[in-house]
Amino acid sequence: MISITNFDSPLGRMLAAAEDNALTGLYFIGQQYYPDAAGAWHEDGEARPFDALRQQLDEYFAGKRLLFDLPLNPGGKLGKGGTAFQRAVWDAIAAVPFGSTATYSSLAARCGRPSAARASGAATGRNPLSLIIPCHRIVGSSGALTGYAGGLDRKRTLLAFERAVALGEAGPISRFVAVGNAASALSASGPTQSEFGLVR
Question: Which residue, of 31, 104, 106, 147, has the greatest Cβ tally within 10 A?
Answer without folding.
Answer: 104
